[in-house]
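Section 3.1: Structural characterization of target chains.
Under the original work plan, the team committed to producing a structural model for every single-chain target entering the pipeline before any wet-lab resources were allocated. The record below documents one such target. The sequence was received from the expression subgroup and is listed exactly as submitted; it comprises 92 residues.
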Amino acid sequence: MIDEFEARILGLIDDMVEHASDDELFASGYLRGHLTAAVAEIELSGDPTPDALQARMQQSLENTIQSELSPRDRALVIGMWENLFRQASQLA
């Protein structure tokens, strides 16, 4: 189930490549790495659900973006994640 959800999100990211701005490409690449790690972690946890993925991604982003990204980039990444998660949930 979580593999399908991850594939939907990655598909949404792939679909935006042709028309995305440089900022959107940066945010999507940043999220792709976090998504792959988060999916692997929740698969090991025994709770591979979209809700668990959402919680893990929020935690992962909170732990890293404060030190890695500017406030503007933080807002961009978080906003893109929320949008991607919402879209993938609606496709289910």
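The first helix runs from residue 2 to 16.
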